[in-house]
């Protein structure tokens, strides 16, 4: 039977149709997540929390602790640890925030003499840092819960996320049977394998990133304290928070630390601060990342940057934080599909 189109063109048309279908499904999924972000955001945060706290919960179960009690103790530990870390970070930033902004303005003034318009722009950015952060944070969080303040929105989502973490941990044993019951019987093994691979990628990312962020913050804080840079603790807290946004967060927090050192201690100490930041980044990139996250999905830096950009355009700061673990889960699913497809192709008929 003759057709109007040759075989290569028909194959190309088929692949284009598949690409359009996948893009359409993804666009609808993103639209639904944005529309129902009041519900979706706590669920995603709870999944990340569950991935991070899974080892502690399983250790409690191994000690013959009741499931509900183990989940409750894990959530209580989260409140204590996260509350303490948040208090330290917020207090450090509040105590040294004005000093850091003042130092940035002084650094901008010094750079203006050498860089002209670029230094003036940095001066304007430092002078309006608080207003810019407030506007950016407000834009990222606006419309989440109509009529409530940003603080109320954050508290409501945090409480809901914590409750979901409790239920996700307690009922984690039912997750696989429930998933298998929702898909056709002949696809149950594939669905379970993909779900385990995706969750394993998120779990590895969260645990590895937290460990690396802590080491980065401690090392950079110690280096800045040795160099007697003012606001070292606050800068270290900034490094810890920024580490959850790969590449971009480290670059921004390291730049702030170097500019503060330049303003307060001069060019020589600033160069030493550059050395400290670069040494820590080299340690992270060549030792910590391969060692800590060697068993998780490895993503190219370009894919990470694109995912961060897409997340920022969809949900602001929160999207930047969630983009990389969700992309890691997607890479895990694609890796499992590729492995199974290759096995199926190579298997004898």
Describe this structure in words.
This protein has 349 residues and is mainly alpha-helical. It is built from eleven helices and no strands. The protein has helices at 7-35, 37-62, 67-115, 117-127, 129-141, 150-170, 175-182, 188-226, 232-242, 248-292, 301-346. Helix 1 crosses helix 2 (37-62) and helix 3 crosses helix 6. 29% of the residues are buried.
Which secondary structure elements does this structure contain, and how are they paired or packed?
Elements: H1 7-35, H2 37-62, H3 67-115, H4 117-127, H5 129-141, H6 150-170, H7 175-182, H8 188-226, H9 232-242, H10 248-292, H11 301-346
Helix pairs in contact: 1-2, 2-3, 2-6, 2-8, 3-4, 3-6, 3-9, 3-10, 5-11, 7-8, 8-9, 8-10, 8-11, 9-10
Would you summarize the structure shown here?
By secondary structure, this protein is mostly helical. It has helices at 7-35, 37-62, 67-115, 117-127, 129-141, 150-170, 175-182, 188-226, 232-242, 248-292, 301-346.
Please bin the fraction of helical residues: over 70%
Q: Given the C-alpha coordinates, what overall shape results? A: globular
How many strand elements? 0
Structural class given helices, strands, pairing? mainly alpha
Mean pLDDT score: 76
Strand content: under 5%
Query: Total helix count?
Result: 11
Order of helices and strands: HHHHHHHHHHH
Largest sheet: none
Radius of gyration: 24 Å
Ranges where pLDDT stays below 50 over 5 or more residues in a row are: 135-148, 345-349
